[in-house]
Amino acid sequence: MAGVAEYIKESYIELTEKVTWPTWKELQSSAVLVLVAAMIIAMVIFGMDQIIGYVLKQFYTSLA
Fold it and tell me: Mind telling me which residue stretches traverse the membrane in this protein (predicted)?
């Protein structure tokens, strides 16, 4: 049990004294970057889905 207590103590010290936390401005900037990247990826996937759907529709109508 002493090992668990020591682990928790060391973890707390590392999180409070050794970790460099981002500033509020850096955090906002990163959040905006992630949001923009997610939107771009979503639009690319949507476009690919639309193109593949169109191609398959043309293919299946040509078979009939």
Answer: 31-56
